[in-house]
Amino acid sequence: MRMTRFIRPLSFMVAAVIAFSACAYAEADTDRPWLDRFEAELHGYGELRSGFRTRNDPHEKELSVMEARLQLELSVSDPWFDFKYKGDAWADGITERGEYDTRELWFFARPAAFLDIKAGRQVLTWGTGDLVFLNDLFPKDWQSFFIGRDAEYLKAPSDALKLGMFTEYVNLALVYSPRFDADRFITGEYVSFWNGGLNRRSGRDAILSASEPDRWFRDYELAARLYRNLGGYELAAYAYRGYWKTPAGRTTAGTATFPRLNVYGASARGPIGAGIGNIECAWYQSIDNESGRNPLANNSEMRYLAGYAWEIARDFNASMQYYVEQTLKYGAYGELHGGAPVRDRFRHVITLQLTKLMMNQNLKLSLSGYYSPSDNDAYLRPHVQYKYSDRVTLEAGANVFAGECSQTFFAQFMTTPISIRRSGTASERGREDGPCGCNGRRKEERRRCMTMNGTVLGRGMERARTEGDRAASGCTTRGKYSTRWRWNGEMPFSIWGVAPESMSWRRRASSGIRGWCTHWTNQDGWLTMWPGKPILTAPEMSRSGFVTLPVRYHWPTTASMSASCPPYSTFLRFRAMRGIFSLKSAAC
Amino acid sequence: MKIKTGWMVAVLMTCAGSAFAAGSPGGVSVDEIVRKANHMALYQGEDGRGRVEMVITDRQGRTRKRVFAMLRKDDGEGDRDQRYYVLFHEPADVRRTVFMVHKHAAPGKDDDRWLYLPGLDLVKRIASSDKRTSFVGSDFLYEDISGRSVTEDRHELLRTTDRHYVVKNVPKQPHTVEFAYYLAYVDRKSFMPVKMEFFKKADRLYRVIEVERLENVAAREKGRAVGYPTVMKTVAQDLDTGSRTEMVFSAVGYNSGLKDDLFSERYLRKPPREAVR
């Protein structure tokens, strides 16, 4: 289906490039046969990937991902143009269908010294954020990201014409997409989420359908970037005209929509001290709701990002970012929601990425963490990759979501509803099954408490207050902090070992897996981790689908780590590659 | 095979010179030796290009292969700043990944490094404070590729043999490097450093880089024919880990008029033909 979707417009965009190339041929020397002028390369890989949930999700299948994938890549180059095709075909165990996606199909030409043209389906990225996107309004595939596909799949392709113009002083990139390319957002098919329309979490039981602007040449997108390097610093200004990339509005009938959006922004990146610093900001102008009084579209926003990346030690890199989303016209927004707004005026997110290379850079350990102090939720993505050889790569990883309230950005993906049964007050217990009011009333209460006590959120707070203080303040937040970081009242992590090399997956899964549980408590205002009872037992793992992985591959390493708490999936991956694709490597 | 021109990728980090010259046996001061060796290893011609094949063999005999094209251009005269462009062909998972460096010779100024990941169309900036990190998992370090700055070591001419000047190089800031000192064997005729021996404390040799094949290849410089002595094969060995990396050059060319903007974001996103071929 995607194939037909882009063929028509492509013919238009590519025509110019082909015409240009044809003219060039007419002028070029004709000594060599036409076909000899091409250089073609074929590459590809096969991949098996499986992931499972460690807690049952009533709205989803037990497996989070299960696929056998084949990617083929054909590049043709000629003195006058380049052509590339890259396509993925995979058998998808979640949708139970064969799937196909064209990742790239483009022509490239450099008709003049100052001009580059690239037309067709292509992956596009710009901006300075590390997995945080402000001015990059090109489509992302959040679904792939959250089920644990390779990072490459976070970017979805655009059907676009890209012009690059280069001068001595400044460069300009223009991207024209004749039809809107939305993000591949979370629909509930693979991952369940907070469905605002239903006011509950939903998944496969109510797959989100949205009405996308889809008229050719009328619902277009235009993105521009003006940039130059000054010393070692990269400066850029951005503009975008198009639509919110994920559903950010709805019709009166309740269908999710993509309201119109303009974005203007700027960024800078360069060396600071021993590392690389970056700042970026963007103004999201929501055309359909500039006043903030339209309940059917998102408000305008300002977004800010500051980051720093540095090398902690040899082959050990870190990057930290601070990201803020500011809702504009918040007063009007608050009135619309009857004084209990769903969103905060500011959403703060702190991100941390750690990457460590070991064993001659063949083993990569990485951890991506996102924590939002305002939403009080978090997302952790530990990942291990081992390059067994130049052709075979093994991976394991996890997606861990945590949070206080299932409406917030990361916490909505938690498999199990958040429970505050154990330590909440009576008034909180009363709310636990409905949409929690944490972003509205409860948050307000918290703010009040914090102000009254003159402390900041976090450690030391409980200690600073006595029961009497609490009563006097009128706060009903008692117990909150002991539930904040409790994933369903239990442990965040388990670790298991893997049995010796000669065993198959099945044997290993049933014989080698041992885990233990820990849990966090809040004592004296400090987060404390306690060891607990074993939580992962072999039968449980077997049931969870881990052993259905149809791979018999001998894994040479002896240990693997994954998180195993409620709300996430883990993924394992096997990838075979070689320079020139052959059936033999695919059969691995 | 006819080799039109030759280019020495800067594999042999040079023991380039500073003004700590000791004596001057044979009329050549250590300062002069180091300066010339630095030039020979890194700065021959205004620009250079070549294809590099690396085979990394570990102690157990398992091999990994890296193939990449490399372009180099000097910024101005005086053997100082340079730009490097590396396009990977193999292994398959990093195919078409580009690594670009704007090397700054000034002391205390870090190089600018970029990485382009084609699957995401992502231009990444890399923090580069530690240059003594392995280059693509091989036994060569970044500093072996783009050269160790001439001012970072104190140099001393230990001895002169029939074929070599043997220069001892002691880091001025020992805490920034893993070696105590290294010896560079500089060919007396060509001034090409042909062997480096790295020592830890107590004179323990732990790492050796040695040129195995040196060819004098033709090039054109300002309209006239010249020959640049060029390293075509070099081997790095880590005696501690038992690992060994062979690096073989081919399709070498000098002074082909590479433009400055080739080392910019434009060509990160779309590699130039000079590198693809």
Please give the alpha-carbon distance between the first and last residues of chain B. Answer: 17 Å
How would you sum up the global shape of chain B?
globular
Indicate the proportion of strand residues of chain A.
35-45%
Q: What is the element string of chain B, with H for helices and E for strands?
A: HEEEEEEHEEEEEEEHH
CATH architectural type of chain B: Clam
Task: Give the spatial strand order of the biggest sheet of chain B.
Answer: 6-5-4-3-2-1-13-12-11-10-9-8-7
Describe the structure in brief:
The complex is a heterodimer of chains A (588) and B (277). By secondary structure, chain A is of the alpha+beta class. Helix content of chain A is 16%, strand content 41%.
Characterization of the model:
The complex is a heterodimer of chains A (588) and B (277). Chain A has eleven helices and 28 strands. Chain A starts with a helix and ends with a helix. Among the domains of chain A are: 1-50 and 67-122, no CATH class; 128-192 and 202-358. The longest helix of chain A is centred in the first third of the chain and has 26 residues, at 2-27. Residues 1-6, 20-30 and 417-588 of chain A have low confidence and may be disordered. By secondary structure, chain A is an alpha+beta fold. Chain B is mostly beta strands and 277 residues long. Helices cover 10% and strands 45% of the residues of chain B. Chain B has helices spanning 30-42, 142-146, 265-269, 273-276, and strands at 47-57, 63-74, 82-90, 98-103, 112-117, 122-126, 153-160, 164-171, 181-187, 193-200, 204-221, 224-238, 243-254. Chain B has a 13-stranded antiparallel β-sheet with strand order 6-5-4-3-2-1-13-12-11-10-9-8-7. The longest helix of chain B is centred in the first third of the chain and has 13 residues, at 30-42. Chain B is globular. Residues 1-24 of chain B have low confidence and may be disordered. The interface between A and B is large, with 52 and 38 residues.
